[in-house]
Amino acid sequence: MSKLKAVWSYIRRHKYLITILVFLLIIGVLDDENSLIQRMQHISEIHELKQEIKHYRDQYEKDSKALKELTSNPEILEKIAREKYLMKKPNEDIYVFEEDLEKKDE
């Protein structure tokens, strides 16, 4: 009986601390949808998606500039057609080296 009184006395003295600890345990770990662990995972995922958005925006700007140059300058269009797609004029011969193909694949 004295142990029960001692435990009850301890709980009564520290009721706010115990309530806060139980609340943090429920919110932090036990709640599946709103746990702190789940929130940290969502924050990490949001950060990764923002980086991906930034990457694609940069790629879009780069491609937009290249497209603008292609449509406005026929010399650049010819250069890219020759280098990237190995196109040639009717009276020309093209020699492709293996080193160039390896660089192109990378």
* Beginning-to-end CA distance, first to last residue: 78 Å
- Helix count? 5
How many beta-strand elements? Answer: 0
Order of helices and strands: HHHHH
Average the pLDDT over all residues and give the rounded result.
84
Q: Taking Cα atoms only, what radius of gyration do you get, to the nearest Å?
A: 33 Å
Rough shape?
A: rod-shaped
List unreliable stretches of 5+ residues.
Answer: none
Which percent range fits the helix content?
over 70%
Structural class, by secondary structure, is mainly alpha
Beta-strand content estimate: under 5%
Question: From the structure provided, what is the oligomeric state, counting identical versus distinct chains?
Answer: single chain
Q: Main sheet?
A: none
Structure in words:
This protein has 106 residues and is mostly helical. Helix content is 80%, strand content 0%. It contains five helices and no strands. Helix 3 (36-72) crosses helix 4. The longest helix is centred in the middle third of the chain and has 37 residues, at 36-72. The model has no long low-confidence stretch (mean pLDDT 84).
Topology record:
Elements: H1 2-13, H2 15-30, H3 36-72, H4 74-85, H5 98-105
Helix pairs in contact: 3-4
Features:
single chain, 106 residues, mainly alpha, 5 helices
Summarize the structure.
By secondary structure, the chain is mainly α. 80% of the residues lie in helices and 0% in strands.
